Amino acid sequence: MTAQGAQGGTFLVPEHTDVTEAESLHRGGNCQDVSEILARVGDKWSVLIVMMLGSGPRRFNELKRMVGGISQRMLTLTLRGLERDGLVTRTIYPTIPPRVDYALTDLGHSLSEPVKALGAWAIENKATIRQAREAFDARRDEAQDWGGRRFG
Amino acid sequence: MTAQGAQGGTFLVPEHTDVTEAESLHRGGNCQDVSEILARVGDKWSVLIVMMLGSGPRRFNELKRMVGGISQRMLTLTLRGLERDGLVTRTIYPTIPPRVDYALTDLGHSLSEPVKALGAWAIENKATIRQAREAFDARRDEAQDWGGRRFG
DNA sequence: CGGGATCCCCAATGATACTG
DNA sequence: CAGTATCATTGGGGATCCCG
């Protein structure tokens, strides 16, 4: 599909149903299936925590401090979710005071690879994105000026 | 995390506070900064749309059909957000009926790489995760049984 | 220290209708 | 077709208290 002119009307969409998943990923087919998993992965907190745990096991409050800005509730819920998905293990040391260590499973580590790549991208392009946003917003404000000024 | 058994009392946690950001990324330091960017990336719809656009420019309703399940409102908002961040371009063809093409910018393409890696991981481990979830839930239900049964 | 239970609120998202 | 505007919903997520 290269030579698509401006054919305004309806166009045919091939029944993109039974493609193999492996292929559909790279071609942009029915990615709805992935969204379910990506929802977990894409979750703001999950990603951060997986990144944190990439460097080794951490304790609850240790994670809380590292993430910064997460409530204990969300930390608990997120860790539970990750545990449920088999991405982290929860090890309880029945000491006093109690101690709980969270660590990535093998699956978790395998996830941390693409996640770290994403994190690296984020850091690498942080400035660029910020600039793009400011430029976009500036353009928008400008546009509002026109609308606001009754061409006086 | 090999030795240290259950050493009951208080124990020392090294003051892991003043790491540099560059180092913190790979080691799991204070990644809060990244979360802002990751929030956009991690957004369910954004990720899917970036994946869709990875295979070339798409029209509005084309994307809507491909994503499947997204409301036109969310599609508009998501695309605006991506445009604002300099990840996609919006090209209007003043034809009748109107036509708008969305395409990844260079920045968008650079993002699509790690995103595709993540998608690949998601597909690859979809089954494993589903199993882990079922196992976890089964364990939880089991536990609830104990609570329910008054040790008959 | 780790975390369950509760209350509460607002931002994210969907549904619907209208416009160019 | 591509979007904007409005309304209704809901559940994500913070604050707080309490327990083992």
Explain how this protein is built.
Chains A, B: Keywords: DNA-binding, Transcription, Transcription regulation. Chains A, B: Pfam families: HxlR. Chains A, B: InterPro entries: HTH_HxlR (IPR002577), WH-like_DNA-bd_sf (IPR036388), WH_DNA-bd_sf (IPR036390). Chains A, B: This is HTH hxlR-type domain-containing protein. Two copies of one chain form a homodimer. Chain A is mainly alpha-helical. Chain A has one domain (24-146): Winged helix-like DNA-binding domain superfamily/Winged helix DNA-binding domain (Arc Repressor Mutant, subunit A, Orthogonal Bundle), CATH 1.10.10.10. Chain A has helices at 21-27, 32-42, 44-53, 60-67, 72-84, 106-124, 126-148; strands spanning 58-59, 88-93, 99-104. The termini of chain A are far apart. Residues 1-30 of chain A have low confidence and may be disordered. Chains A and B meet through helix 1, helix 2, helix 3, strand 1 and helix 4 of A and helix 1, helix 2, helix 3, helix 4 and helix 6 of B. The first copy, chain A, binds a DNA duplex (20 and 20 nucleotides) through residues 8-9, 59-61, 70-77, 92, 95-100.
Q: Any idea what the CATH architecture of chain A is?
A: Orthogonal Bundle
Radius of gyration of chain A: 23 Å
The total count of strands of chain A amounts to: 3
- Within CATH, the superfamily of chain A carries the name Winged helix-like DNA-binding domain superfamily/Winged helix DNA-binding domain
Organism (chains A, B): Methylobacterium iners
Keywords (chains A, B): DNA-binding, Transcription, Transcription regulation
Pfam families (chains A, B): HxlR
Protein name (chains A, B): HTH hxlR-type domain-containing protein
